[in-house]
Design brief:
This protein has 2 domains: 131 residues, no CATH class; 220 residues, no CATH class. It has 15 helices and 5 strands. The strands form 2 sheets. It has a 3-stranded antiparallel β-sheet with strand order 1-2-3. By secondary structure, it is mainly alpha-helical. Helix content is 60%, strand content 4%.
C-alpha cells in the first residue's frame, strides 16, 4: 500500500482484507464479495467523517463474524492463510482438527454435520474462485466410492452373462481387471478407515493414552524410538477397542463376522494381489498365492466389499457413533445404468476364472 495513504484508509483496507479472508474460510465470501469490493474501490473517495464511521463498522463486523464462528486466530493469521490459499495452484485442504484448534470453534453453522465429521476429514478450498466449495473430503469415503465404482464396472463387463465361459475373452479380461481393482480398493478402504479412527484417537487423546495404546495407534516403538509395523489383525480388532475405551465404551469384536472375514479370506486375496508369487507353499505343495490371485472375480470382489462396509458400520456403532452422521458414505449406492446392467446385477458374477482367462 502506498505510503501517502492515510491511516484510516489503511485500517479500512486491513478490515476488508480480514473479512474477505474469514468469509472465504467459512464459505460465505460469495454473498459478501461484491459489498467488500465496492468498499475497497470507493471508500477512499468518501469524506473523512464517513470513512471513520466505515472503519468502525468494519471493525465491529470483524468482531461479530469472529464471535459467530468462534474465531480464535488473529486477524493477521486469517489474512496470511487466505493469501497462501489464493496463491496455491491446486485444491487446498484444511483438516477438521487443525480448523478447530487454530481457526474456528463453531463450524456447525457452515457444516451442520460438523460435530459428527471425523477429525481427519478435510475442508476443500479453491483459491482461484471467490465462491466456497462447501465440500468435505473424507479419504475413506473416496476409497469406498472407488471400490463401488470398480465393482460396478466389473458387473457391467459381464453383460449379464452368468457363465464366464460364454463371455468373450475381451469381456472376461475386463471383468477380471475391474474385479481385482475393486477388491484392492475395498481393502484400501478398510486400511483408510482404520488409520482414520486411529489418527483421530491418537491426536484427541495423545496425552492420556497408555504408552502401549499410543504406540499401537501410531505404529511406533517408544522403547526403540522408531517405526513399528502393526499387523492387519491387530488393527481390525484392537484399534476400535482403544477408541472405544477413550469414550468410556467397552468394544468387543470377537463375534463380528465381517471382522473375521476381513482377516481371513479377504486378506488372502489382498495379499495375493499385492504380493503376487508363483512360489509353491511347502505345506500344501501348491502355488497358493497364484491360485488365489487368478480366482478373483466380481462375485468375490463384491463379497469383500460387503464385508468391508459391514465391518466399518459395526465399528461406528460400537464406538458410539451414529453411522448415518459420522460415515454417510457407508450408505451410498453405486447405480447401474441401463437394462443390461440391471440384468447383470441379478445374474451374479459366475464362478472363478480359469488360469487362461486370469492371465
Amino acid at each position: 500500500m502506498p505510503q501517502h495513504v492515510s491511516k484510516v484508509d489503511r485500517e479500512i483496507a486491513t478490515h476488508v482484507g480480514t473479512l474477505e479472508a474469514i468469509y472465504f474460510l467459512v464459505q460465505h465470501l460469495e454473498e459478501n464479495d461484491e459489498r467488500l469490493q465496492t468498499i475497497s474501490r470507493l471508500s477512499s473517495s468518501l469524506p473523512r467523517a464517513d470513512r471513520l464511521q466505515l472503519r468502525d463498522e468494519l471493525r465491529d463486523e470483524v468482531r461479530w463474524v469472529k464471535d459467530e464462528t468462534g474465531g480464535i486466530a488473529t486477524d493477521g493469521e486469517y489474512r496470511d492463510l487466505y493469501r497462501k490459499i489464493r496463491k496455491y495452484e491446486g485444491y487446498y485442504y484444511l483438516d477438521k482438527l487443525y480448523i478447530e484448534r487454530t481457526l474456528f470453534t463453531n463450524c456447525r453453522r457452515v457444516f451442520p454435520r460438523w460435530p459428527h465429521i471425523k477429525d481427519h476429514a478435510a475442508v476443500l478450498f479453491d483459491g482461484k474462485k471467490r465462491t466456497g466449495m462447501g465440500q468435505i473430503f473424507e479419504l475413506e469415503g473416496q476409497c469406498l466410492r472407488d471400490a463401488r465404482e470398480l465393482h460396478q464396472r466389473a458387473i457391467q463387463a459381464e453383460k449379464g452373462i452368468q457363465d464366464f465361459r460364454q463371455r468373450t475373452d475381451a469381456d472376461q479380461l475386463e471383468v477380471l481387471m475391474f474385479a481385482r481393482a475393486a477388491l484392492l480398493a475395498a481393502m484400501t478402504f478398510v486400511e483408510a478407515y482404520l488409520h482414520g479412527i486411529a489418527y483421530d484417537c491418537f491426536h484427541r487423546h495423545h496425552d492420556e493414552l497408555p504408552i502401549d495404546d499410543h504406540d499401537l495407534l501410531g505404529e511406533w516403538s517408544s522403547e526403540k524410538k522408531r517405526h513399528a509395523n502393526v499387523d492387519f489383525r491387530s488393527k481390525v480388532f484392537r484399534y476400535p477397542v482403544i477408541v472405544g475405551r477413550t469414550r468410556g465404551l467397552k468394544v468387543d469384536l470377537s463375534g463380528c463376522k465381517p471382522a473375521h472375514a476381513l482377516i481371513d479370506y479377504a486378506k488372502d486375496f489382498r495379499d495375493a494381489l499385492v504380493h503376487p508369487s508363483p512360489f509353491i507353499d511347502p505345506k500344501t505343495g501348491q502355488q497358493s498365492k497364484f491360485l488365489i490371485q487368478v480366482g478373483v472375480n466380481a462375485r468375490i470382489a463384491g463379497m469383500v466389499l460387503a464385508d468391508a462396509v459391514a465391518y466399518a458400520e459395526a465399528v461406528e456403532k460400537a464406538i458410539g457413533n451414529d453411522p448415518m452422521q459420522s460415515a454417510p458414505w457407508l450408505f451410498e449406492k453405486a447405480e447401474l445404468k441401463g437394462a443390461v446392467l440391471k440384468k447383470a446385477e441379478k445374474s451374479g458374477s459366475g464362478g472363478p476364472a480359469s488360469p487362461r482367462r486370469g492371465s
